[in-house]
Amino acid sequence: MTEYVPIEVQDTSGPVLDVRDLRVWYASPKAPVQAVDGVTFALNPGEVLGLVGESGCGKSTLGRGLIGLLPRGAAVDGELYFAGREMLSLPPREREALRGAGMGLIFQEPMTRLDPLMRVSDHFREALKAHEPDLSKAEMRTRALDSLRALGIPPTRYRNYPHEFSGGMRQRIMIALALALRPKFIIADEPTTALDVLVEAQILRILADIRQRYSPAILLITHNLGIVAEACDRVAVMYAGRIVEQGSVRQVFAEPRHPYTQELMRSVISLKTRELHSIAGAPPDLSDPPPGCRFHPRCPHAMRVCVETPPPTIDDTECWLLDRNLSSADSAPLVRSEVPVADEA
Amino acid sequence: MPTKPDTTAVTGAAAERGGEPLISIRDLHVNFALRTNAVARLLGRSSGMVRAVDGVSLDLAQGEVLGIVGESGSGKSTLGRALLRLVSPSSGSIRYRGRELVGMRESQLRPMRRKLQMVFQDPHASLNPSMTVGHAISDALRIHRLYGSDRDRAVADALERVGLAPAERFMPKYPGELSGGQKQRAVIARAISLGPELLVADEPISMLDMSVRAKILGLLDELKRDLGLTYVYITHDLASARFFCDRIAIMYLGKVIEIGPTAEIFDNPRHPYTEALLKAVPDPDPSRGVARDLPRGEIPDAVHPPAGCPFHPRCPKAFGPCGWETRDVRMILEQRWTAVPAEQYARESELVGDPERFDAIEESPSEGLVRPASGSGQDLLELLEQERSADRAEPLWHGVEGMMADGNAVRIRFADRAIPRLLPVPGTDVEVACHLHHDPQAQPADDPA
Questions:
Q1: What is the pTM of this model?
Q2: Which of B201, B205, B195, B248 minimizes the C-alpha distance to B226?
Q3: Which of A156, A198, A273 sits opposite B71 (nearest CB)?
Q4: 20 to 30 Å CA-CA from A250: which of A197, B40, B171, B286?
Q5: For A280-305, what is the mean pLDDT?
Q6: In this predicted model, which residue has the larger pLDDT, B52 or B20?
């Protein structure tokens, strides 16, 4: 079991999480896979940041990298400040102590994360014991029941086993478990993807409610732009290991600047869809990403410069289109053959 | 780019008048027995049963796209599989061009299957990983007795039709070498290679990335026009159903609770469940915010479905005849306990005792008798009355006609209940099963089964 190390909060006014140039590689037989390649963002107290992108863009790896749950064989580089403290340079034991107490994680599949042989009460006892061993049994019970009640789980179910709950209830229990430790920062990785529409809406409502009650900062990883629009304050759009655009949800949805964000929004099938749209081509192989801008092979506005040089970051958007000082040679449209249907994702 | 199909096209109801439907389903039931141990079966104890499809009647016109929409456990996939006889219906009738499929022998059924094909949700699980794409399609054709150069041509045609061109490039590929979208294209190629009339597509785009979904949906739309296919599109995703379907049937716990032309269902949902589903779809519009007034709870246990209307315990608009019973009272108490302070919960739960046993004492359709674990019937009655006055808007109380202490128990009298049947709404092509739209007194009080 982990030893409890009190969190020294060095700075309470600044962002909860400050990530600078974070990189994560995986080993692979061919070449290293750069799943996250130079990501920079900050998360303020009580803020919900939506992280969107297609599968394989590195969004889940980024989430795991932040919380220190990467598989063996992954390498991390960059800077990661949590409550003003650099985490990547901490010894593993201290990092582990912070996870749970300071940071919570909510997974996609609650059933695979709850132990089928442990009652709900045992799950709470284990989590609280590991991170706050000074609590008495009665205090643990109160804390657990408070947390469950906030998520609409009747206290009568406290001694039940995970299989006695429906999928939505299990996800609520997962969230309650994370909240019982009063974390400052929660990563929710596709928390509603396995759930039905109505239950998904209930969980989103709960996430909105717990913000008012506990005000943790939340990183909500999802592929669903509808969820981002409803539940997040800010959004970061990820493509091929990089955040290509970030900003307030209102601003990005009203006026997406990066061509990938624009294309992604057009391809969503919503209740208002009258015409189908899709993005040509497929996301690149991250062990051998294209040179220059990684989106250039699929970009409808690609220019000559996009093939050669990685784009600058202007207004939180990584795109050459925003650079007004390009020469006419650089900004000439890229000539290329059309992507055949067969090469699509 | 494909655009939204013209909604003025022939809808099912209109087509019915014109000619015979392609598929006609009447009172279809699919029951699954629950597994119990051998001893219980030998002793003749009844094992539980799930009515996955519970009395569904539908007509499918040629060239129509019928959406079957519901949450998991609604029976939508079972209905789709039953259409192709991949599961055996327990009773009822499925007619394909006038021929009865229920009870048909496998040997007679096989030639029909050429005409009735299915596309599943997970393209990866639908393809044999050790078979090349060409081989997989060719194998399907071999089973249906197509040989020689005809078969090779049919394989190539099917692949090119779904956009996997040139076919020679894709035939030798193994599923592992294809992207998710390409795999689903290969699965669709296999389904259309036999020249089907009906394609049952069970969540064909749910597992795909959002940038690919539009492509596959567009492909299905294109195939419909080029090959004159009829679709049953099974999904939980209302947005794609709205785009793709001519008619939509909403299912809940094995029953169709509302069916009608797509535009009617979306512009003017009549069943409170349909209304709730529409409200719950996350919309990529930041000005909307999180949906608040949504039904509570989740789809109930299908082994013991609620009495009356299956949706009534969750329904915000439920009233007297919707099927209230004692276990709904328990639900209200559990709901109360998520809100009251801890000490009050401790006191009240001691009085009520194990809520699992709360409804087990005595129950008839009109009355329930509940006994507290400790304390008198009067104590429990006071608790219930307190809850009633605390939340008068709670739909349950419309269905409770009286409560009285009876010795050490409480007797609760419920309003007469009726099961809502799927009936047409006058002046429209919509049918709905809800007491808000049809007189409950004209409907059966209990299931005939």
A1: 0.89
A2: B195
A3: A198
A4: A197
A5: 91
A6: B52
Q: Does A343 score more than 70 pLDDT?
A: no
Task: Tell me the pLDDT tens digit for each residue of B343-362.
Answer: 898 888 888 887 666 655 66
Would you call A344 and B280 a contact, using CB atoms and an 8 Å cutoff? no
Q: Helices in A40-191 by DSSP H: which ranges?
A: 59-67, 92-101, 110-113, 120-131, 137-150, 167-180
- Write down the ipTM of this complex: 0.87
Classify residue B25 by burial, with Cβ atoms within 10 Å: 0-12, 13-18, 19+. Answer: buried
Residue B199 has pLDDT above 90, yes or no: yes
* pLDDT > 50? residue A276: yes
- Among A45, A47, A81, A41, residue whose Cα is nearest residue A59: A41
Alpha-carbon distance of A107 to A22, in angstroms, equals: 22
Q: Which residues are CB-neighbours of B220 under 8 A, at least 6 positions away?
A: B188, B199, B201, B204, B231, B233, B244
Chain A positions in Cβ-Cβ contact with residue B257 (cut-off 8 Å): none
B84-107: pLDDT as tens digits: 999 999 999 999 999 999 999 989
Residue of B nearest to A268 (CA): B210
DSSP character string of A258-317: SHHHHHHHHH---TT--B----SS-PPPTTSPPSSSTTTTT-TT-BHHHHHSPPPEETTE
Q: What is the pLDDT of residue A3?
A: 39
Number of CB atoms found within 10 A of residue B69's CB: 26
User: Which pLDDT band holds residue B47 (cuts at 50, 70, 90)?
Assistant: low
Residues of chain B contacting residue A198, judged by C-beta atoms under 8 Å apart: 71, 276-277, 280, 294-295, 298
d(CA B58, CA B245): 15
Name the percent of chain B in helix, strand, coil, to the closest 5: 35, 20, 45
Q: Which residues of B432-441 are buried (b: 16+ CB within 10 A; e: fewer)?
A: bbbbebbebe
